[in-house]
Amino acid sequence: MIFGGFCLRIPSVMQLGSRRYHSKSPLYLVYFGSDQYALAHLQALIDRESSLKNYRIQHVVTANDATPVASYCTKTGLDYSTWPRGSNECAKIVASRVKDWQNDLARVHPPSIGQKQSGILGLVISFGRFLPTPLIAAFGQGCVNIHPSLLPRWRGPCPLLHTLLAGDTVSGISAIRLPADEHAFDTGPVLQQRAIQLDTRRPLTPSQLGDFLTPYSIEVMFEIIGRALTGNLSEALSQSALAKRCRLIPADAPRPNEAMGHVDWANQTASEIVRLWYCLSETPVHLTSPLQIRKPTSTASDAIVRFVGQNPVAVPLDDPSEASSRCQPNDLLLLQNAAYLLQRVPHEFPPGGVMYLRAQNQRNYPLVPFAFIACKPHVSFPKRSWLAVPSLHIRMPGARHFRPLTALDVYNGVLHESESRKLSSMYDLPHGFHPFSGFRSLSNPLTSKIEYRAPLRDTVIISLVNKVIPSDWNISAPSGLALDT
């Protein structure tokens, strides 16, 4: 059927007495999901459907025809519909169909005396659309959202990204019931949670974190299906109560904006900037900073730099493992030598300042193929942290387009040696050090918000495990909070 320019692919009638219904009615699911994370859960449901035989996927709803879920449904023949952004008709049509399906289900499998009709369960996983209350109310079993964070921390469309941005060492999975009244994103009562400890020594992208959390999330999803089959989805804990008992600060997880890509050299350490680079590498937002160019015959002007392409690395000032996971062996040796040399740079050297170094252990003393940028001091080291950048994209003053350059290209073709000589004298630097004024800081909202200055740590999760499920909240189905290490 065509509604307002989009195609809604929903079966016109319920196939009574055929493959859809059986003598013992299973739980019927309408699945809402869009991205790769959602697809992994849908595939798990399909893979186990024939063996478990206690649930059926009635229909799939996805954001548009370009999503991984839509491609999978097309390939496998699953019934699915699309929900274009901003469309109000889709929710009404799906709600109407759900009511029709439930009426048909009630006729084929009427509930026994004293029993409630099982109905249909809405399962929402990384869908990207807000389900209005009339649609939620249409489901006899209600709607459950499986969310990859420890709610109320990181409510919104990008919990994985913000988990990484904040440097949380613990993440988790929350199963929440979507309220059938007015509500905001990800605010429903918590049916189930599981906390998972993260290894933050290696920077991750959001999709890599999603891959790590997926097996835990799938396990929680099947536990929720088990509870739905026994009619045990009523017991839940409000997020306000959860936050109070566990000292969790509710935090939003919005989509990244341009300001989140600004580099604030004075208020972000090199490790934080590396983490930000990986977090934004899968988004349209780029790490951005203005580069001061001082020509001998003119006033200073700014080029705009985007840090894209090869990943930047935090110079391992006191811990070689900082760089080892993302470096080639030869580069790691160069960075370890650079760490020794950079300790000779005085603390007065400004954040955003750029330093080029000559290799001290190679013939002819070639330039090390990195631009080293001074950043905020690390908490465990008294002097500035340093970011090693192998390449970047630059738009020169007056130019329309960015062009890719290596760090050595920037030294040879953009910066000016006269400035380096002046700054070397000012900071009393030895031979082999080539300083430049470098980059100006831009304000980044991440540096001021409390949720990014107070990462979720293991001690908080221990408190969660001990206190979140009180003794008077007795749930027979698998539930509660578990810490996986």
UniProtKB/TrEMBL annotation:
Entry GO terms, CC: mitochondrion
Gene3D superfamilies: 3.40.50.12230
SUPFAM superfamilies per record: Formyltransferase (SSF53328)
Chain ranges of the Formyl transferase N-terminal domain: 123-200
Coiled coil (residue ranges): none
Pfam families hit by this protein: Formyl_trans_N
Highest taxon listed in the record's lineage: Eukaryota
UniProt-recorded Gene Ontology molecular function terms: methionyl-tRNA formyltransferase activity
The protein, known as: Methionyl-tRNA formyltransferase mitochondrial
Organism: Fasciola hepatica (Liver fluke)
Taxonomic lineage of the native organism: Eukaryota, Metazoa, Spiralia, Lophotrochozoa, Platyhelminthes
